[in-house]
Design a protein that fits this description.
This protein is an alpha+beta fold. The chain is built from five helices and four strands.
Length: 146
């Protein structure tokens, strides 16, 4: 990826609704060229343009990170977790847990049901530890492209 592509990403990380004409002026391209680059970046999966919400404001009062220990290959378990609607983040890790999973739920009852009947019952899951979020101190997506 060239410097212009990286700069376009950085500008959109700061403001996903920034007009292409403004981006074009900053990077020295035409509006049409910026539009084409953004389309290529989104179609190729390099970036997404999404609305980031505050979960509490839209009715999701319980968020948690769940550490999962597995037996054997964690890949198929990660694939199953990715299918769950409440799961918004899955990473394979090294350390105490094989997988870390972030969940967003409407409340404690939904978290309990998810944990007990849909996560812990996945074949190969041998243990979980749940870290309930008490406060979201920082959430940002403008780390740039370096």
């Amino acid at each position: 990826m060239d410097a212009i592509g990286k700069r376009i990403i950085e500008l959109l990380q700061q403001d996903g609704r920034k007009p292409f004409v403004s981006i074009a002026a900053e990077v020295g391209l035409s509006e049409g060229a910026v539009r084409q680059r953004v389309q290529r970046l989104t179609e190729s999966g390099v970036m997404q343009i999404v609305a980031v919400t505050d979960p509490l404001v839209v009715g999701f009062t319980r968020q948690a990170m769940i550490g999962i220990k597995t037996a054997g290959d964690a890949g198929p378990i990660a694939d199953r977790l990715c299918e769950l609607a409440e799961v918004d983040y899955v990473v394979t890790t090294a350390g105490s847990f094989d997988l870390l999973v972030e969940v967003v739920c409407e409340g404690d009852a939904e978290l309990l049901e998810l944990l007990m009947t849909r996560i812990r019952t996945i074949e190969g899951v041998i243990g979980t530890e749940t870290f309930v979020y008490l406060k979201l101190n920082k959430q940002h997506y403008d780390w740039g492209t370096r």
